[in-house]
């Protein structure tokens, strides 16, 4: 609908020309000139309207493309998941974790939302030492995001240590699910 | 006091009676080989009224739990004397009793308990006394009688009239966790919920006067350190820093709280002056420094650090600023607590992939593993240095367990439901 003002201006021009013609007495040459001017104005207006239409179409296409890109990034994020797992007693990002994080980083570059990283450990070892290990894991995810262009002020890290397991019970099967960082968009 | 203005009251959260199923129950798993036989005769009631509790039973349970006594069963007693004149030593020798404790309870506005201890072999009275309490806390009176008897016979002050803090977690039918900070007597009786939250509660610790506590609560969505007065329930948030806010530990003089903050990058130990609330950072290392605890003389602080690659115990000397390493045996030694003698240090020690409670003698540098279960943590030592309370797992459930410092006596304190963890044994409490 952006082309309306342009068409409006053209129409005003057209009516002004017609009015001038009606009021300008008997000179035939003047009448012809007026008619030609009116025709030219009409053509110019039509041209402007066409161009505006094309620009709008280009914009709409770009918006559709951007939306599709965002959908694609969102889908990639959904596929990657928001939980990144760690090896025993380690805060080093695994290859899988880096790939998953790359999807989040690509999306975060297109918006200005903040994220929160919750670090967790398994039940082995002391609780307060594990609080520190959980923070180390969250920080290692944060550092990777910062290196890849996400501003650090957009990221908050909180450690829960071993306080909030997702898998209850002992054994590596449970422990490996609990050694994690969870990303949530704020 | 300017701090009073900052104290927040959450009266509805506090001091509510706990449901019976969350109460701890005691299961003795191992006692001494040759415990002392003692007859705790049912106490007589004097005057009008009904005794509010079976004092003799509470005393007998206390002594049994220490592992050093074997109380005589009531149905084996030939008589129930309540005065010295009625104690016939021949009757007690006949059932191999070494000591006899008798007593009288006088109910009323001020509950009173009189007691007398007899040595059967020497055929004489060896200890007598009385305890009274206006608040009518019959169980605490009984524990004080236990303390006196225990001290007379073993030579070590008793720690029965003390209290515990612990954290419990229960999952409701919708799968939601409820965290509770509970205060109870040392035998698990009279539990009171001090704080209930949907978010984690951690690291309860006692002020040296036993009137205040500190702990970590995630109720704001992040960890924060709180202090709370037990009597009034008044509480105050001490910290709200970015990153870790953990491991509060009161200095022996009560003027300073050591804590762990990571606001300046890595987890380090800070001291908060309780009068000015000013902070003083005492460790500066990119490694993890955590789990501070004060030596009884207040001159140095033990803490856990992985600055050497693996967690070990270090000691920071406040006067010189020097830090030295304390533990060298094994590759995981963490969360130390020290006995009042300044010598026996209890800690979590990993051996063959399992986490046990160990005791480390700071004079001889010898380390002895006290427990044989796995995933043992959070050791807390009784104020008389005799027993170590700690958290462990039984099946998939978290329970509390206790072991004597020589490893000879063991008992469990499971809750009837839910997980229990992070016990903190109180200091001696003023009557």
TrEMBL record, chain A:
Entry GO CC: cell outer membrane
Subcellular location, principal: membrane
First and last residue of the signal peptide: 1-22
Example GO molecular function: flavin adenine dinucleotide binding
Domain spans labelled OmpA-like: 73-186
Gene Ontology BP term (one): cell division
Coiled-coil intervals: 38-69
PANTHER family xref list: LIPOPROTEIN YIAD-RELATED, STATOR ELEMENT OF FLAGELLAR MOTOR COMPLEX
Protein name (Swiss-Prot/TrEMBL): Peptidoglycan-associated lipoprotein
Species of origin: Chromatocurvus halotolerans
Taxonomy of the source species: Bacteria, Pseudomonadati, Pseudomonadota, Gammaproteobacteria, Cellvibrionales
From TrEMBL, chain B:
UniProt cross-references to SUPFAM superfamilies, sorted A to Z: TolB, N-terminal domain, Tricorn protease N-terminal domain
Domain named TolB N-terminal: residues: 24-125
Quaternary state and interactors: The Tol-Pal system is composed of five core proteins: the inner membrane proteins TolA, TolQ and TolR, the periplasmic protein TolB and the outer membrane protein Pal. They form a network linking the inner and outer membranes and the peptidoglycan layer.
GO BP field: cell division; protein import
Cellular localisation: Periplasm
Residues annotated as signal peptide: 1-22
Domain of life: Bacteria
Sequence similarity: Belongs to the TolB family.
Protein name: Tol-Pal system protein TolB
Lineage of producing organism: Bacteria, Pseudomonadati, Pseudomonadota, Gammaproteobacteria, Cellvibrionales
Chief localization: periplasm
């Amino acid at each position: 609908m952006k082309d309306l003002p342009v068409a409006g201006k053209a129409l005003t021009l057209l009516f002004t020309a017609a009015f001038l013609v009606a009021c300008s007495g008997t000179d035939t040459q003047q009448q012809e000139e007026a008619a030609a001017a009116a025709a030219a104005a009409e053509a110019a207006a039509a041209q402007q309207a066409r161009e505006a239409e094309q620009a709008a179409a280009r914009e709409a296409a770009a918006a559709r493309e951007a939306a599709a890109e965002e959908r694609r990034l969102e889908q990639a994020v959904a596929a990657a998941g928001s939980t990144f797992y760690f090896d025993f007693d380690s805060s080093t990002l695994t290859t899988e974790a880096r790939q998953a994080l790359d999807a989040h980083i690509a999306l975060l570059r297109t918006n200005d939302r903040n994220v929160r990283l919750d670090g967790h450990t398994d039940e082995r070892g002391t609780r307060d030492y594990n609080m520190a290990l959980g923070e180390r894991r969250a920080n290692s995810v944060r550092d990777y995001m910062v290196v890849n262009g996400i501003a650090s002020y957009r990221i908050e890290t909180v450690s829960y240590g071993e306080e909030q397991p997702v898998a209850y019970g002992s054994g590596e099967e449970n422990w490996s699910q609990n050694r994690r960082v969870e990303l949530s968009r704020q | 006091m300017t701090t009073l203005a900052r104290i927040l009251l959450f009266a509805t959260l506090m001091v509510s009676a706990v449901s019976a199923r969350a109460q701890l129950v005691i299961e003795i798993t191992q006692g001494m080989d040759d415990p002392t036989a003692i007859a705790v005769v049912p106490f007589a009631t004097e005057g009008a009224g009904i005794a509010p509790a079976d004092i003799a039973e509470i005393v007998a349970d206390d002594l049994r739990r220490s592992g050093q006594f074997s109380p005589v069963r009531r149905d084996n007693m030939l008589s129930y004397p309540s005065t010295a004149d009625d104690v016939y030593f021949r009757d007690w020798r006949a059932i191999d009793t070494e000591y006899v404790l008798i007593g009288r309870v006088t109910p009323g506005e001020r509950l009173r308990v009189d007691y007398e201890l007899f040595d059967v072999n020497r055929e004489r009275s060896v200890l007598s006394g009385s305890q009274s309490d206006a608040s009518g806390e019959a169980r605490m009176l009984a524990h004080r009688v236990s303390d006196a008897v225990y001290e007379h016979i073993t030579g070590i002050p008793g720690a029965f009239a003390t209290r515990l803090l612990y954290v419990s977690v229960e999952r409701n039918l919708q799968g939601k966790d409820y965290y509770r900070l509970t205060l109870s007597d040392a035998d698990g009786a009279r539990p009171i919920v001090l704080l209930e939250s949907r978010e984690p509660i951690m690291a309860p610790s006692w002020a040296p006067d036993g009137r205040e506590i500190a702990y970590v609560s995630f109720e704001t969505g992040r960890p924060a350190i709180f202090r709370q007065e037990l009597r009034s329930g008044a509480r105050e948030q001490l910290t709200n820093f970015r990153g870790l806010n953990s491991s509060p530990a009161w200095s022996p003089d009560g003027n300073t709280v050591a804590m762990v903050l990571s606001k300046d990058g890595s987890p380090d130990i800070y001291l908060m002056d309780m009068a000015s609330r000013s902070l003083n950072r005492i460790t500066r290392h990119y490694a993890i420094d955590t789990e501070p605890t004060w030596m009884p003389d207040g001159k140095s602080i033990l803490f856990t650090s992985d600055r050497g690659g693996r967690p070990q115990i270090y000691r920071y000397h406040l006067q010189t600023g020097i830090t030295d390493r304390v533990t060298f045996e094994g590759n995981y030694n963490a969360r130390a607590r020290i006995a009042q003698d300044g010598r026996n240090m209890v800690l979590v020690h990993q051996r063959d992939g399992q986490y046990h409670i160990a005791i480390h003698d700071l004079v001889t540098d010898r380390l002895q593993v006290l427990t044989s279960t796995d995933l043992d943590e959070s050791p807390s030592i009784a104020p008389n240095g005799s027993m170590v309370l700690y958290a462990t797992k039984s099946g998939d459930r978290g329970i509390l367990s206790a072991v004597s410092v020589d490893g000879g006596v063991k008992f469990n304190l499971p809750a009837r439901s839910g997980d229990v963890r992070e016990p903190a044994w109180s200091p001696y409490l003023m009557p």
